[in-house]
Design a protein that fits this description.
Layout (H helix, E strand, L loop, with lengths): L28 H12 L6 E4 L9 H13 L3 E4 L2
Parallel strand pairs: 1-2
């Protein structure tokens, strides 16, 4: 996993991937695991960091649903691109 966080700052606690799953779909197994994990661990997670938002979804309505779902758990979605 590439290090995207500073050595003395927040620590990454999980990597969730869906290789070969289109950004138009949000039902990949890694995506579902990430949503469940963030809901279960919301007291220890502040951000979900993605490489780029289009990898979450290319549909703005779906992306808004994801942001709202994470937000209900107190988690913010951030993109590096």
């Amino acid at each position: 996993m590439p290090r995207l966080l500073p050595a003395n700052g927040p620590q990454g606690i999980g990597v969730f991937t869906d290789a070969g799953v289109s950004g138009f779909r949000r039902n990949g197994p890694g995506f579902r695991r990430m949503l469940i994990f963030t809901k279960e661990q919301s007291n220890s997670i502040r951000y979900v960091v993605v490489q780029e938002l289009s990898l979450v979804s290319r549909d703005h309505r779906v992306l808004a649903d994801v942001v709202n779902s994470l937000g209900r758990s107190g988690v913010q979605l951030r993109s590096t691109f």
